[in-house]
Specification:
The chain is α/β, with parallel strands linked by helices and 352 residues long. It is built from twelve helices and 13 strands. It has an eight-stranded parallel barrel with strand order 3-4-7-8-9-10-12-13, surrounded by four helices.
Length: 352
């Protein structure tokens, strides 16, 4: 099966990047995706924000923007799937072309701009899968032309409460002008405070859902303690470190130096892992971390875990290696955990 899907991945790469992605989603909706056994091994069990995951390898937001195929991706072996980014109102996103493969670098540049079908469509699809197994989260964003972006996040939380297993507050995309300003101290106080108030109204003794904040890899080291304190103070359950970067490392060459958008994939690995380790040191185990950025192998997933992540996410690597990569990473993680004498993922967290 892996040979078949690797061949399919190769054929899709011959299409323009965005068309290939749209074609992939259509094929998955038609039931043509991989149907792997659930990857659920004792060594791989992990808990993030109170969620018990069968394995620590998750699908990052951006692949399934409209919650079209979460179950298909769970069948590919992911321990959890994050859909979105979804905004209250539909929006078409930025002008095309806006998605670029850097094949020689196993990297992607995107400036999609939160293109999605809006909350109503997203909500209907999550309602249809209610009661099915598997962890599915919602990545919330704000409309580009919104007059109150904080209210957009609150609206997303309220509309999807009870339908999503967790919520990620995405204020770190570089492709919506001004969005990253919400990472500032005062702006974040207002955002997290209003979300905390909404959550207190929505939660019951029997029902509560984790809230994670997704930050940019371009945060300064000096901002880390402040962000940790705010996340802790407003009762958030974790941090996702990190989104795409606006940096252009010399390794990707002059051809891509001036291409606008967020860079993801292998060139982001070292930077995002370094920031992850800084967050882990500052949080002192009091905030759960999910590591994202350049995960394309078991070795890299293990490095994120040892830097402080209780789980990891990937997306760009699927473009180049196909869905068989999920099983390969999980197998490799088991080997590495055993070789280092760890009984499970939790024992390895932060040991680097």
């Amino acid at each position: 099966m892996s040979v078949f899907y690797r061949a399919g991945t190769g054929l899709l790469r011959r299409l323009p990047a965005e068309r290939a992605h749209m074609t992939t989603v259509r094929l998955l909706r038609a039931g043509l995706g991989p149907k792997s056994p659930s990857i659920d091994r004792p060594e791989l069990h992990t808990t993030v924000g109170g969620l018990q995951m069968p394995n620590p390898v998750g699908l990052a937001a951006g692949f399934d923007k409209n919650a079209d195929v979460p179950d298909a991706m769970l069948r590919a072996g992911f321990g959890f799937v994050e859909c979105g980014t979804v905004t209250p109102r539909p929006q078409i996103g930025n002008a095309k072309p806006r998605l670029f493969r850097l094949s020689e670098h196993d990297a992607v540049i995107n400036r999609m701009g939160f293109n999605n079908a809006g909350l109503a469509a997203f909500e209907r699809r999550l309602q249809k899968r209610a009661g099915r197994p598997g962890l599915v989260g919602a990545n919330l964003g704000a409309n580009k032309d919104s007059t109150d972006r904080v209210a957009d996040y609150v609206t997303g939380l309220e509309r999807l409460w009870g339908l999503s297993d967790y919520f990620t507050i995405n204020i770190s995309s570089p492709n919506t002008p001004g969005l990253r300003k919400l990472q500032g101290a005062d702006e974040m106080d207002e955002l997290l405070g209003r979300l905390q108030e909404a959550r207190e109204t929505l939660r019951t003794d029997d029902e509560d859902f984790p809230l994670f904040l997704k930050v940019a890899p371009d945060l300064t080291e000096s901002a880390v303690p402040r962000v940790v304190e705010q996340v802790r103070g407003f009762g958030f359950d974790g941090l996702i470190v990190a989104n795409t970067t606006i940096d252009r490392p010399e390794s990707i060459g002059a051809r891509w130096a001036d291409e606008a958008g967020g860079l993801s994939g292998q060139p982001l690995f070292e930077k995002s892992t370094r920031l992850l380790a800084q967050f882990h040191a500052e949080a002192r185990g009091e905030i759960d971390l999910i590591g994202v950025g350049g995960v394309g192998s078991a070795e890299q997933a293990y490095a994120k875990i040892r830097a402080g992540a209780r789980a990891v996410q990937l997306y760009s690597a699927l473009v180049f290696h196909g869905p068989a990569l999920v099983g390969e990473i999980c197998d490799g993680l088991v080997e590495r955990l055993r070789a280092d004498g760890f009984a499970n993922v939790g024992e390895a967290v932060g040991t680097a």
